[in-house]
Write the structure tokens for this entry.
Amino acid sequence: VAMAEEESPFACAICCEVFGMAHVPTTFPCGHSACISHVALLQACHVCREPLPDPASCRPTYSLRDGAIQYTRLLESLQRDAAAAAASALGDPQTQPGTAQTEESRLQQAADDRRRAEAAEAAEAERVRRQQIIEDEELARRLQAEWDFVDAPPVAPPVAPPARPARPAQPAQVPRQRPWFEQFLSRLTAPSQAPARPQNAPKQCGHVCTLSAAVPMCCACSDRRPMQAEGTYAEYVDGNGWVPRALRNAGYCVACRR
């Protein structure tokens, strides 16, 4: 029987189905309940967001399931009685004496409906029991495999292969003369003849800077960034992004930084 959560106090807040043989409930440590089939998809309670335990530790709440079944039966009985009373008040010919549907036939139909409902519940209970047996057997096989792995004898270390005999000493060989190679090494080891770049050369702005002569101005005069009121500029830091803690002269040369 499908009902909305506001219509039944025994309805699951996730799938809006009333608890029963087809929707077995389970109760969380926080006190809220839901269908046991939803536990594997949840990490916290769907009502109060309290973290849930291991899904394998959740067990069905049979008292809540039985109460929901009794509540559903009582509600259906009250609905049938109300419908019968309404039909009698409107003059339904099926409720008048002398018609084909007598009181005995109604009682017989109600008994048949009750037997069919009980048979369906018994079949669903048997299906749930078989499913639980299959899950328990799977858990037992997994635990047995873990225990066998723990109790397994230690694996012996691999045996090292025997050492190879030492090769006999070879007579020393006289290195061959290679004039071209000697010339190449002499060029590599010879000191560079390039003139050294002048350090701290004055720029057009009158300041001393260690940048190349191709840059006419020093680092400070070439910086066109707007001045910050607090004196710090944005600096990228791994894990934090852009942080306003770098100084203006952080990227200047040694002479301009002084």
Summary: The first helix runs from residue 62 to 89.
